[in-house]
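TA notes. Do not distribute before section.
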Amino acid sequence: MKNLWLSLVFYLTISAAFAQQQIKGKVVDQSSNTPLIGAAIWAEGTGRGAVTDSDGNFILSKLPDGKVTIRVSYLGYASFTEEITLPYSETLVFKLESKDFLSEEFIVSATRASETTPTTFKTIDKAELAKRNLGQDIPILLNFTPSVVSHSDAGAGVGYTGIRIRGSDQTRINATINGIPLNDAESHGVFWVNMPDFASSVENVQIQRGVGTSTNGAATFGASLNFQTDTRRDDAYAEIDNGFGSFNTWRHTVKAGTGLLNNRFAVDARLSQITSDGFVDRAFSDLRSWFVSGGYYGEKSVIKLIAFSGKEQTYQSWWGLPEDKLENDRTWNYYTYDNETDNYQQDHYQLIYTGQVGSNWKTNFALHYTYGRGYYEQFREDDDFASYNLPNVEIGEEIISSTDFIRRRWLDNDFYGFIGSANYISDNGKLDFILGGGANRYDGGHFGEIIWARIAGNTNIRDRYYDNNAIKDDRNIYAKATYEIKPGLNIFGDLQVRGIDYSFQGINDDLRIVDGQESYTFFNPKFGFSYEKGERTYYTSFAVANREPTRSDFTDNPITEVPRPERLNNIEAGVRSRSGNFTYNANFYYMGYQDQLILTGQINDVGAYIRENVASSYRAGIELDGAYQLSKQWTLGGNIAFSQNKIAEFTEYIDDYSVEEFQQETFTYTDTDIAFSPNVVGSAIIEFQPTKNLSVNWFSKYVGRQFLDNTSNVDRSLDAFFTNDLRISYSTQPRYFKGLEINLLINNIFNELYEPNGYTFSYFVPGGNGRELITENFYYPQAGTNFLLGLKLKF
């Protein structure tokens, strides 16, 4: 044993001696000799690597004696390799040659804000998304950005999730991927559950709050989310990203790319699976996705073919938690049927061209197609045959009018079209002009099937008890320009015309005939000024957006009483500053609505609740966000928003069951709060980096009281909450790997009991004084203290 220990010590001593060589060097541009910051240096076969600092310098240490191949790479430059023999005492200088490729950033530039655009925005890059991405959905990853409130049906951030920005939900938030519309054409929503692990294939995302700049698809009635998918990598790579967490949450991601082949072609691919039991009982998720991108990269053009798909099965937790179970049974789930699941798959295909024409023009054009199909299955206890347009069943002398059913409600839709833009920049750089637009068609089928009945009667499996179809054409054209009036002072204009034709016909799920057609033409002007002075940019703008009603507004209302379109007038004014270690943004906004659509409690002729226009409402607030680097180890950041969100006047309808013949009673309210619009939303982030490889982050989130309806009734509200999360990240470059990253995220570290989402309804019943008002509140509780642990290997 003694000899064994002596041998081991001798071996380790010799190994250490062979691993103490180092080389120093610098990476510069070949033509200008300017240092290249962030260039990657790799000693092949040793597991050792480095990144150049602000002066282009690097140090590679703990290298073995002998020959070693050093490889240097930097985006936009040709990779360089050199073999040296260690020990090596001289300072290396690597001169990289620039490769003239057209930037892929132009693919999204037509629908994005730049530093001179007079609107309020924040861009989150790939590195920041990667730190947060441990398998949770996009809304959870964006939770700490300004004015954002996110929520999860299953309570743990996997499965059905949602996001609100400035109090506006996803149906009022425009989303695009590479400029291509993502929102559902009929509901205007985005179902992130259909895109599991999409963040792993995102290069960056820009959040524009308010109307923002003209974009494709649904109106930006509160904000917009503009995603750009992965851009080219020059070197071949492979990554394995696995994770595990509370509630039996697992994530498996494999990602690889060829790098640049023949100096012209590149292919990237990803395959992902995420599973979770969920915080709520039985609220499991089984999510699978893939992403493939192939591109041709020329000196003056880029052609990319992108395909990605997501398939989900989630157990339903849509019902929420009754108020009386909040204290003792927060994981309760109304549903018990073992296949009460949602099942959906969505495939996306994009063919994108971008090219440079002469020295002043760039063009972008894309064709796209999305195919979605799926259903949710429900067990229905003691439903009437009449609800399925079926006759009663006669058995002998007994007439049976109801039984138990299992049904599936289907969506089967196609969405396709094109978008394009042309960008002109004058020789002197003073004029930046974009002409763009697109045309898209949605063709969607809605139908319901009976797959089982306890007493079948005159039914067959997969009988359709309703079936309808909708076609929606959406066209827009816009022209936007930024002109530098004098040094630092820019004027911005943006004019968009959007046309919509929407037709639908067939039998709705409530067995009513829904045949109708509506057409709209909207004019959405925007203009403003920006002024750059030193490291600050001041801006102010006025923008208009118009939004058509959603599908349910058409199908639930009598066609002769379809609600009016909504209109938004948006004022933004603020300042952006970057000064050394301190960056900040401060802005004021006013969003004045005409004919905003809200739920009032009014019902249609078959008892479904409908939305109505309210003449006047507004959102107004101040948003502050910034970051300050105290030292090399400590960085403080955060954001806070203070707002007022009011409806001038509206009438509430409450069901009255205290009388013999059902009726609704009305109540009029003035100057009330808009539902789900907290007056205060804030986040704080503290980062401590004791070493180059280790980072510790503390996240805090505060959300003020949210009302469940528009009556400002505290008894129908969500309590304010304050949560804290801890993230520990460690990265290294071990031998045989390009990199190893470990991320531990502990959510809700103080076990805060909170609910960021819910719903309410009230009704009168007979009582001691004639009648009694009953209010039922339902909540979506989020998990207490829980964790996610991720391990990523880079090859």
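Switch to the second chain here.
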Amino acid sequence: MATTAKSKQKKTEISEAAHDAEDFLLEQLPIPQALRNHLMFSIGKSNSWATPRDWYQTTAYTVRDHLMGRWVKTRDAYRDANTKRVYYLSLEFLIGRMLSNAALNLGIAPELSEGLQEIGQKLEGLSELESDAALGNGGLGRLAACFVDSMATMDIPATGYGIRYDYGMFKQTIENGQQVENPDNWLRYQNIWEVQRPEHTCEVKFYGRVVHVHTEHGIEPHWVDTEAVVAMPYDVPIPGYGTQTVNNLRLWSAKATNEFDLAHFNEGNYEKSVEGRHSAETISQVLYPNDSSASGKELRLKQQYFFVTASIQDILHRFTNYNADWDSLPEKVAIQLNDTHPAIAVAEMMYQLVDHYHLQWERAWKLVTGVFAYTNHTLMPEALETWSVDLFSTLLPRHLEIIYEINHRFLQMVNQHFPGDTDLLSRVSIIDETHGRRVRMAHLAVVGSHTVNGVAALHSELLKTTLFADFNKIYPGKLTNVTNGITPRRWLNQANPLLTELLTKHIGSGFQKELSLIANIEPMAENKAFRAAFREVKAANKQRLADKILQKTGVILNASALFDVQIKRIHEYKRQLLNVLHVITLYNRIRSGKAQGQAPRVVIFAGKAAPGYWLAKQIIRLINDVASIVNNDPAVGDQLKVVFYPNYEVSAAEILFPGADLSEQISTAGTEASGTGNMKMALNGALTIGTLDGANVEIKEEVGDDNIFIFGLTTPEVAQAKADGYNPWDYYHGNAELKQVIDMIGNGFFSVEEPGRYQAIVDTLLHKGDQYLLLADYAAYVATQEKVAALYLDQEAWSRKAILNVARMAKFSSDRTIGEYAKNIWKVSAFSG
């Protein structure tokens, strides 16, 4: 007994000593000393010959030190408490640069800046050397990044899951006015912020066949003769703001099971020796490979299944390590599907539970529908992913069987509740039999989730009444709304330090974590001195943007002009082309002397077109051709400038949003699910010109009718116009200015060396029906732009409205959004362990 007591005492002493040692290790050196240490011991250089990149890496390692202790403690606390966790599955996480954001969220930015100044460096300059993490394309990925920031800030136990793309989508350059796609090699200088976790690798299987084996338990399916790759996890810490919580973003990279074949190498067949590695690594090489070919489609489905199965395996491994009762799965796990890209997770979870863990189908399905929720991001049926049954049967034969069984049981249920309605069965079936037999991934996500949400009030209502009307009838109450939001840490605190400083001076710094406090600035809209200070901030941000544009494009801008900004993915429904029609209208008015007395205007575009989207790329080319004519016309001078800002990414957005006076949100009503660029620009003091589409509706409600410029057909009016046989020719012949603009595009005014260059754009507007009703909204848009121009001349009135926009943006914090998800969908609370 004495020996046992001594042994326990010894173990206790060892444990306490270990904790003491851990606490010692987690203590941080003064930042100047930490910087010098990392330069010496991590980089292996002295100050006398260190390059700027050496100093960036040194600074990043120093900030990472502060992250690591919190990260480890957060994960240990979640594990020890066996708390419920949220798992956010997204094919994109557009997290941007980490250095400045992490330093700000950790609260060490001032000390870090001072420490760098002591050794002759500047934090701002070093931050510019960091590559944007090329893990996303646009709003979907940036939304996911805002969400993981908010989950950490709000102490929600959460993990994000995605793919560690080697090259991202592409780096956009503009050559001869045209988009050129270049590899975005963001990992060229390594990623200091990630930690490889080889102990958590997963096997991912493709191809093969399914055999059904008779056993004592009945017929069991076995997926055999498969080809396998390895999913290697890389973890990225996501620090919360004003909290000790650091959550995890786990990104999967594809590796070959046998990366090198020595036998082939020794035979002199060097290409064959690494063939397996190259084939495997293709899966995680590029975001959104062009799917215009059969091989491209196969690769995209491979990508989706690759990251989904690795994530589901990881989730279930963690669950089974700490829980013995499968029925507690929904009490411990909440999985959010960000759009349809991860929808195969529904079938994959069934595959794991039924085939690997041998649960009965009914029990497994109850668990699946207890853990999954699905966010829809589009109203356009053509944008909802479908995959051919043939591709599924080749690539994922067992999962096709599972989808068939899910569909069979679902349609049986529907038929019981709505007997004899064969049209309904056809419309809601997961298998589309009318377009060559295809798997409808959105339908799989709806059927397999307990909650489906839209991302703006209008969008969610339209889901219920149009796209998912049948499902709303079958599953009353399943469809709900959670309006999107943005993190004020990235989009105000980091992107706009001057405005943050001004606000903090008057209302304190609490708004950075609790954006509702920003409403306290509203009375200052009536304070003349504050309005002047606000304009000074905007002027400085515009000059910063003008300097960057000069560096990027060579175009010299007058920073006192109205900066009219449209930055988003290039797509017909977002209607950059409508903006171009207005630009040409302004150009014609200036040349004819009809625009006298108006404020100078700079129209700024930015965004990428998908590589296979030819017409979107033509719109980019037209913008640049128009810019070339307008910017070099001596009759125009500084009255109008047009700029296409190349390679739009998060770090570019951080300069573009604060520099905007006018926010262009002009999609056809009923097409944009939400938008978040509208929120970011308003938070940074821009006024919105937009249609009643997506989140514009709610922004209008928040800022007030007098502080936003709304124009154009409403969603019901768009539907009615199409039902009445909308004819764009009526508008073309009925508006002389519009006719002149379209004729200039069509007859080669902006492309004299190739007059027919833009015939396809003219055809889209006139001969192919003008699907997005640009011509119907043109006159209202131009008239509203006249109101914009008139107001801008009254800088006191303009700045008053801009301040009110900033003050009334509280609803659009991603913290509010995550709070609604946590309470109403995930049923999870802030962790207090």
